[in-house]
Amino acid sequence: MIVAVVNFALPAPLTTEEARAMFEASAPNYQNVDGLRRKHFLLADDGRSAGGVYLWDSREQAEALYDETWRTRVAARYGSEPQVTYYESPVTVDALSITVG
């Protein structure tokens, strides 16, 4: 499993309600993306930065999404260039189980 963390600065702070409306509007873009298992939208406590945590089947599938078109769309929508950091996730814990691999 690959985890990608996306961060970007916001030109002006957003309230939780403003962020929720923006995130809900873009959420359908992430449905049915090959290899994407889950996405969590993020907003910093001070409302000055946002992003997402994405869980992927593979890095190749993640990189296929984060192309120039995606970067341009995110920058236009949120006012700054997104930064993407990749992590391997060899163990996952949820409320009921532990998954290795």
Salient structural properties:
3 helices, 101 residues, alpha+beta, Alpha-Beta Plaits, two-stranded antiparallel ribbon, four-stranded antiparallel β-sheet, 6 strands
Strand-and-helix sequence, N→C?
A: EHEEHHEEE
By secondary-structure content and strand pairing, the structural class works out as alpha+beta
CATH class: Alpha Beta
Rg for CA atoms = 14 Å
**Which percent bin holds the helix content?**
25-40%
Euclidean distance between termini CA atoms? 7 Å
What is the CATH T-level topology?
Alpha-Beta Plaits
Q: Give unreliable regions as ranges.
A: none
Q: What would the principal axes of the Cα set say about the shape?
A: globular
Tally of contiguous helical segments: 3
Describe the overall structure:
By secondary structure, the chain is of the alpha+beta class. The protein has a single domain, classed as Alpha-Beta Plaits (2-Layer Sandwich). It contains three helices and six strands; from the N terminus they run E-H-E-E-H-H-E-E-E. A four-stranded antiparallel β-sheet has the order 2-3-1-4. The chain has a two-stranded antiparallel ribbon with strand order 5-6. It starts with a strand and ends with a strand. The relative contact order is 0.29. The mean pLDDT is 94.
